Amino acid sequence: MTVTVRLFASLRERAGLATITRTLDEGATAGELLDALHLDFPGLSGVGRIAVAVNSEYTDLAHRLRDGDEVALIPPVSGGCG
User: Fold this and answer.
1) Is 79 exposed, middle or buried (0-12, 13-18, 19+ CB in 10 A)?
2) Domains of the chain (ranges plus CATH)?
3) pTM
4) What does each C-alpha distance from 55 to 59, 66, 69, 71, 79 come to in angstroms?
5) Could you read off the pLDDT of 19-51 as tens digits, one per residue?
């Protein structure tokens, strides 16, 4: 199956890409996708907990992906002033 991965903020900067098309085994989870991306893009490691959305709905790493899914990976965000 093939999924489209959209990287946001610091993840996009670390990978050097905004969008990745990835082929996975049928029944792969969002967590397995993230593990595979860490192997291909070591710079993605160490950013903290990453939020995952599949087809615009937040989900967890155990979510089973389907062919054609769009997966958004969103790093932790902080900001503002004191």
Assistant:
1) exposed
2) 2-74 (3.10.20.30)
3) 0.89
4) 10, 10, 6, 6, 27
5) 999 999 999 999 999 999 999 999 888 878 899
